[in-house]
Write a structure and sequence with these properties.
By secondary structure, the protein is of the alpha+beta class. Helix content is 33%, strand content 26%. The chain is extended and about 80 Å long.
């Protein structure tokens, strides 16, 4: 998580102290950041935008995606995953045996 350092004077002694506070969360992100956040790829991000599952707009030549739509997509996927039982993929049987 990003953070920012600010200087503030305390009211007790007037001494300037450094405070580290969390940086504000962005309202929009670029496509590459969305790829990282969703652990996905560019093609999938653009497909989700075409399907209106990720809301976006052009800022000059750059495509910006609303963080609220990324949050909503994650929430929908989480809810769908909670409704399905967890199943393991079967492991392939190991070949055991003698000479060939």
């Amino acid at each position: 998580m990003r953070s920012a350092t600010i200087s503030a004077a305390t009211s007790v002694n007037g001494k300037i102290e450094q405070l580290t506070v969390p940086a504000p969360r962005p309202l929009v992100v670029g496509v590459e950041t969305a790829v990282i956040l969703l652990d996905s790829n560019r093609d999938t991000i653009y497909e989700l935008m075409r399907q209106k599952k990720l809301l976006s707009f052009l800022d000059g030549k750059r495509r910006k995606i609303f963080m609220s739509s990324i949050d909503e997509l994650i929430r929908q996927r989480r809810d769908a995953a909670l409704k399905q039982p967890f199943e393991r993929h079967p492991r392939p049987a190991l070949k055991r045996g003698g000479a060939v």
